[in-house]
Amino acid sequence: QDNSFEQFIINYCNEKLQQIFIELTLKEEQEEYIREGIEWTHIEYFNNAIICDLIENNQTGILAMLDEECLRPGTVTDDTFLEKLNQVCATHQHFESRMSKCSRFLNDTSLPHSCFRIQHYAGKVMYHVEGFVDKNNDLLYRDLSQAMWKASHCLIKALFPEGNPAKINLKRPPTAGSQFKASVATLMKNLQTKNPNYIRCIKPNDKKAAHIFNDALVCHQIRYLGLLENVRVRRAGYAFRQMYEPCLERYKMLCKQTWPHWRGPARAGVEVLFNELEIPEEEFSFGRSKIFIRNPRTLFKLEDLRKQRLEDLATLIEKIYRGWKCRTRFLLMKKSQIVIASWYRRYA
């Protein structure tokens, strides 16, 4: 119920994860259709980059202003920090405060004077500013880290490497917010190099109990997790896409013209293959470098045909091998019979 600095940075991390989810699913998928020359009607979705910028912008972001308050001389309190937020973020559409210059919140009794509210992608969250400055300015003084580094216990010494006299840094230690921001940036950079799979968890109720399904709660989560936009893009788009070369290599045994070898461009081979299989034209589209299949049932059909064809080919190979083996044995027996007969006639 009471959200402070800890919940603020947790929600900031959630915003960044939602942003990379948007980048790798909604945005990237629609851009791929455009790159491949597929006819496509753009589907609108909410991009939370504006919220991430509100929090992490180096000049006007909330974390930057919090660091500035922690580092500036003079009297610094949580109220001065909130006053600074009101000056800089007053007109931002996702920031709300009773002290803000935006008069539409002056009569909002649900928002106390010592709080501000951010409209996150998953809904509005109110934060109490009490403790923001102290928690962000959570410093380990240099003399304490040096004292711990001098301990005889190897584990304690390893926990405080900054106390090593050879690594003394006279700069002010980074604030908790800047450290968390750097960690999140490293995480995002790592995720961008991967091919992640997403699992969205939906809570059926707030009681953590079985056999209780709260429709309103589930609909709220589906709406704010961006699942509706994702489903709309998936249903309007194509369930499967693959480069022409591996697609032809996988399914070429289904067509006499492409099996065992296709002489020509891979795209032309895929076109011949799909025409031979009489797949409806609305079920697939040819991109510049990929084949796009709309319905999973079409892909399942291809896989079933391939499975059956592999069984037929295996039977054919087995049949030819058995015939070769029997003929080889027959020719060997015939040769042996001729030798035996010739020696018998000579003896007789």
UniProtKB/TrEMBL annotation:
Belongs to the TRAFAC class myosin-kinesin ATPase superfamily. Myosin family. One of its GO terms (molecular function) is actin filament binding. GO terms for cellular component: brush border; cytoplasm; microvillus; myosin complex; plasma membrane. InterPro entries: Kinesin_motor_dom_sf, Myosin_head_motor_dom-like, P-loop_NTPase. The gene is Myo1b. Keywords: Actin-binding, ATP-binding, Calmodulin-binding, Motor protein, Myosin, Nucleotide-binding, Repeat. One of its GO terms (biological process) is actin filament-based movement. The keyword Nucleotide-binding applies. The keyword Transport does not apply. Transmembrane segments: none annotated. It comes from Balaeniceps rex. Pfam families: Myosin_head (PF00063). Residues 184-206 are annotated as: Actin-binding. This is MYO1B protein. Residues 1-307 form the Myosin motor domain.
